[in-house]
Automatic annotation (TrEMBL):
Keywords: ATP-binding, Nucleotide-binding, Sugar transport, Transport. Residues 4-234 form the ABC transporter domain. GO terms for molecular function: ABC-type maltose transporter activity; ATP binding; ATP hydrolysis activity. GO terms for cellular component: ATP-binding cassette (ABC) transporter complex, substrate-binding subunit-containing; maltose transport complex. The keyword tRNA processing does not apply. This is ABC transporter. SUPFAM superfamilies: MOP-like, P-loop containing nucleoside triphosphate hydrolases. Residues 367-390 are annotated as: Disordered. Pfam families: ABC_tran, TOBE_2.
Length: 390
């Protein structure tokens, strides 16, 4: 059993409030990712959980016990930092077992725990090597192994993959997901990389300017972002936004006029909208469809061929729109293209940047990595119908 509750957690440095009353629950065996831009407070929040920073207000409760006045060494946690922080004169085995050696654990017991962790991390052939003889990914696995041997109640990861190259980051993401399955442990992971968050998390906590913008499964945040910030942060490439004119509100949704003059009905609840309220439409690049009869048009300014996909950067009036298309599209730079979208794939934001509630529910929005149900068995009810493309 390893749970965490944060109640009204606030952190001030002098007169500057960097964490602003956060409430959060982490359930047993969850993989929770804190994600957000630099300076949003995610590492500070992690350090308060670990006991490396004190909370100005609020309670930190681990497994039912208030931990505000408990030191870092006594909280039963293990933290893996961005820096490997390995002792260069020690072997892999020495580094992994060092904390147990300081704690007076007998040599045979230390070795047994190190061997067990090494097997999980596939480090057995490397136990006699020193850090200088290891690759970056191997060093990071040693740092993780040093945490595993402590048998913590909760693992804390503070941007552990930032120092690795792109290929190693992909490999380590796979290994961390596998490690979570094998250890069946509670893990909290901090990153600025929303791809890491989407691929590893059971639950994502999106932070911005010291507050929690939204908490949910990766697919819930992708399909049903709470506001414009979450919509623009989750997803790669980022969502396209453009202003639209509100024409009417009905039980079927909100009718808006698109750039270029054509209109469409977005199936969202607009009953609380003021008349003529300024609205923004959001469409993800992968949901824009090249269509000779589409309502939108623009000129290709940049074209990036990625093999299976092609990214088109299209100038539409003052906006640069991103479209993800098939890798074999025949367009060239400076070509004019027309495109459209299915209204069910669109997001509508009010003047305050809050997303209007969708009248449809995507069948995958409630699923996590550990949910083995088929989409038709999902706990979330309702389904997105293809609808008419506009």
């Amino acid at each position: 059993m390893a749970t965490l509750q944060l109640s009204n957690i606030t952190k001030r440095f002098g007169d500057t409030e960097v964490i602003k009353g956060i409430d959060l629950e982490v359930n047993d065996r969850e993989f929770v990712v804190f994600v957000g831009p630099s300076g949003c407070g995610k590492s500070t929040l992690m350090r308060m959980i670990a006991g490396l920073e004190s909370a100005s207000e609020g309670d930190i409760v681990i497994d039912g016990q208030r931990m505000n006045d408990v030191g870092p060494a006594d909280r039963g946690l293990a933290m893996v930092f961005q820096s490997y922080a390995l002792y260069p004169h020690m072997t892999v085995e020495g580094n992994m077992g060092f904390s147990m050696r300081l704690a007076g654990v007998p040599k045979e017991e230390r070795r047994a725990k190190v061997l067990e962790a090494a097997k999980i991390l596939q480090l057995e052939p490397l136990l006699d090597r020193k850090p200088k003889a290891l690759s970056g990914g191997q060093r990071q696995r040693v740092a993780i192994g040093r945490a595993i041997v402590r048998n913590p109640s909760i693992f804390l990861f503070d941007e552990p993959l930032s120092n690795l190259d792109a290929a190693l980051r992909v490999q380590m993401r796979i290994e961390l997901a596998r490690l979570h399955e094998e250890l069946d442990a509670t893990m909290i992971y901090v990153t600025h990389d929303q791809i890491e968050a989407m691929t590893m998390a059971d639950k994502i906590v999106v932070l911005h300017d010291g507050v929690v913008e939204q908490v949910g499964s990766p697919m819930a945040l992708y399909h049903h972002p709470r506001n414009r910030f979450v919509a623009g942060f989750i997803g790669s490439p980022k969502m396209n936004f453009f202003a639209v004119e509100q024409l009417a509100v009905s039980s079927d949704g909100v009718v808006v006029r698109l750039p270029g003059g054509r209109s469409c009905t977005v199936p969202v609840d607009g009953q609380q909208l003021a008349d003529a309220e300024e609205l923004e439409l959001g469409i993800r690049p992968e949901h824009l469809l090249l269509d000779e009869n589409g309502p939108l048009s623009g000129q290709i300014k940049v074209l990036e061929r990625l093999g299976g996909q092609t990214s088109l950067y299209v100038q539409m009036d003052e906006l640069l729109i991103t479209i993800m298309a098939d890798g074999d599209v025949a367009y060239r730079v400076n070509d004019t293209v027309r495109f459209g979208f299915s209204p069910e794939r669109a997001h509508l934001f009010d003047a305050q940047g809050i997303a209007l509630e969708s009248l449809t529910q995507h069948p995958l929005a409630g699923l996590t990595r550990h949910d083995n149900r088929a989409p038709g068995q999902a706990a979330v009810h309702g389904a997105v119908s293809p609808g008419e493309q506009v």
